[in-house]
Structure formats: C-alpha cells, structure tokens
UniProtKB/TrEMBL annotation:
This is ESAM protein. InterPro entries: ESAM, Ig-like_dom, Ig-like_dom_sf, Ig-like_fold, Ig_sub, Ig_sub2. One of its GO terms (cellular component) is adherens junction. Its main location: membrane. Keywords: Disulfide bond, Immunoglobulin domain, Membrane, Signal, Transmembrane, Transmembrane helix.
Length: 165
C-alpha cells in the first residue's frame, strides 16, 4: 500500500504520488466525515483504498479502525474499427468484425444494417462478445451500410462499413 493522504496534528499532507494534484479531503477534517475526493479519474486509479483512523489513547482493538473500499473506474469504449473479411461475391460467405481497443468493462458489440432496408442481427450470425457478424450465401440484396455499436456501462461508440456484393 502507498499512503496518499494524511491528517495529523491539524495538518493535511498529500504524498508525492500521481494522485497528488487530484486528491484531497472533501470536507475540513473534524467538521464532517472523512470523505476523500479524486478528480479527473483514470483507469489506473482503480484499486483498493483503505482508510485508517488512529486516535491517541483510544482503546479500540486493531482492525476496528479500518475502512476498505474497492474503486473501479469505468472506461467508455474507444471508437471501434470495422473490417470486412472475405470476398463479397454472390453466393460467398463474409465476416464483418468490430473491435474497440479500450473499454472497461469490455464492450459488447451490436451490428445492424441501416441502408437501404434496416435490419438487426442475432446469434449465431452475430457474436456480441467478439464483435463479428457472419453473412452467408451473399445476395445482391445484402449490400448496404452496416453499423457496429461498441457499448458498455460507461458509454458507446460506432463504426460503419459499406458492403457491396
């Protein structure tokens, strides 16, 4: 563990960590509870945070003066990359793929065709976790604009690809 923030003898001290310019006590110490803020959170701020309260001449048994919280910083998906794999000719099979380099938790992927006629897809043709859409026995009518949405609890991003059969 790395000590980040202390209050001792009326003095607040912020240790030299990457959190230093972004962390502090939410309220003046001794006026409210000992809440802490972290501004401009980053994914690497995720982890376990421990608050220890030591009072001079306090007979509290060890372990009763400790609070623990686990922080998970969510990250919206990055703009995904859409790709076409295979040769889009009549009667052939192709796979459309969609992948986002960032996202916490890992994004799920949803494909849809928007033009000329809207169409949604379901498993097994579509793999929500891998971001793939398998199109089999291509026909001219399957041509159009395909849009992939990468989504998690923190947000979503889209990419698109034009399929010309």
């Amino acid at each position: 563990p790395v000590q980040i923030l202390t209050y001792l003898d009326g003095v607040v001290k912020v240790e030299e960590t990457e959190l230093k310019p972004r962390v502090g006590f939410l309220y003046p110490v001794l006026t409210h509870n000992i809440s802490v803020f972290i501004n401009a959170t980053r994914e690497r701020d995720s982890g376990q945070y421990i608050c220890t309260v030591n009072v001079v001449d306090d007979a509290t048994p060890l372990g009763r003066n400790v609070g623990v919280i686990n922080l998970t910083v969510l990250v919206p998906p990055a703009v995904p990359a859409c790709q076409l794999h295979g040769n889009p000719t009549v009667g052939a099979n192709v796979t459309l793929s969609c992948s986002s380099k960032k996202g916490k938790p890992s994004p799920t992927y949803q494909w849809e065709r928007t033009d000329p006629i809207p169409q949604v897809f379901f498993p097994p043709a579509q793999d929500l976790a891998r971001g793939t859409l398998r199109l089999t026995n291509l026909s001219l009518e399957m041509s159009g604009l395909y849009v992939c949405t990468a989504e998690n609890r923190a947000g979503f991003e889209k990419c698109s690809i034009v399929l010309e059969v």
